[in-house]
Structures are given as structure tokens and as C-alpha cells.
Design goal:
184 residues; 7-stranded antiparallel beta sheet; 7 strands
Length: 184
């Protein structure tokens, strides 16, 4: 004859709040039980934000003063910068710059999304009539190196194959522009 085992009683590691639902959640917050960011303690968010904005500015300067210099000077492309407000968790709201590239019949925008993004140290989205290409900030340095002291480079990522990242240079930027203004 088969024996039936009694289910073992499992004690929760944290006692549930007296009331559930939103009131129970609010009680947890008031009691200080919820710690939203233990992994982010000790991070210099102001330093990270400043370095991020510096790197975005350097990217824009390279695009305008090097990669597109001839096209801009000939009047084939007009580069326009406009203010943008970004709001990131743990950093707060801050001002950044959007770069718009206007050309005959097409418009491409480079819009910073933030420095606290999954899988990268920051992201700028390039968008145009042909779709979108993400530019992600990469670093070969390990996590123990503080953000402001890391070595960085930009890489292009296609939204359809996010695992493939191609280091950004004049030619890969040209390929991205071509995809965004003249999709085949």
C-alpha cells in the first residue's frame, strides 16, 4: 500500500506584510526593507555622467570635423545640434545634445539614450528613414576599473542582430548612414 508523505512546511525568509497589495508594498518601503540598488553602491554617478557626456561630444566632433568634414563643407550635409533632456535611474535628469544630419531628401538623428544601459557603457541611437542603428560604448577594461578611467571605443549594432558589434570608424559610420538613408 503506497504511503503518502505530508507536504513539508516551508517558512518564508521574510515574513509577509500584515496587509498585501499596494498597501503591503507601501509598508515595506516605509519600513526600509526595500533596497533598490545594492549593486550600485559606491559608484560615482556624477563622474560617470560627466565622462559619458564628454565621450558623446567627442563622437560628434569626430563625425562633424573628420568623417563628414568634406560633405559638410560642400553643403551636402548640414549638421545641427539641439538640446535633449535625459533622465536615468540613479543619475537623475541631465542635459545632453542630439545631433541631426540633414541632407537632400533625408534626415538622420543621433540621440543619446544614456550611460546605464544593459550590455554596454552607454548608447546613442542613429535613426533615419531606413530604420535604426545603435552605437554602443564599449570598453576592453574589466569591471574593477572605475568608469572615468576606462578605455572606450564606439561600436555599431544592428537592432536585428544585437550580438554583432562592429567597431565604429569612418567606413562603418558611412555604411550606417547608407543603411539609414537608402535602404536596399
Amino acid at each position: 500500500m503506497p504511503t503518502t508523505k505530508k507536504p513539508r512546511k516551508v517558512e518564508p525568509s521574510i515574513a509577509p506584510p500584515a496587509k498585501g497589495g499596494m498597501e503591503g508594498f507601501a509598508n515595506l518601503l516605509r519600513a526600509g526593507v526595500v533596497d533598490a540598488a545594492p549593486a550600485f553602491r559606491g559608484i560615482d554617478f556624477e563622474g560617470r555622467k560627466s565622462k559619458w557626456l564628454e565621450l558623446v561630444g567627442e563622437l560628434y566632433a569626430t563625425i562633424e570635423k573628420d568623417w563628414l568634414k568634406k560633405l559638410i563643407s560642400r553643403g551636402d550635409i548640414q549638421a545641427l545640434e539641439s538640446p535633449l533632456r535625459i533622465n536615468e535611474q540613479f543619475i537623475g535628469a541631465y542635459d545632453a545634445v542630439r545631433l541631426s544630419l540633414a541632407m537632400d531628401g533625408a534626415f538622420v538623428e543621433l540621440t543619446p539614450r544614456g550611460t546605464l544601459v544593459a550590455g554596454a557603457n552607454g548608447r546613442v541611437d542613429m535613426s533615419g528613414p531606413g530604420g535604426e542603428v545603435m552605437l554602443v560604448l564599449e570598453s576592453p577594461d574589466d569591471a574593477s576599473v572605475p568608469f572615468p578611467k576606462k578605455t572606450f571605443f564606439w561600436a555599431a549594432v544592428s537592432p536585428s542582430s544585437r550580438s554583432i558589434r562592429v567597431p565604429l570608424d569612418k567606413d562603418t559610420f558611412g555604411d550606417a548612414l547608407t543603411k539609414l538613408v537608402a535602404p536596399f
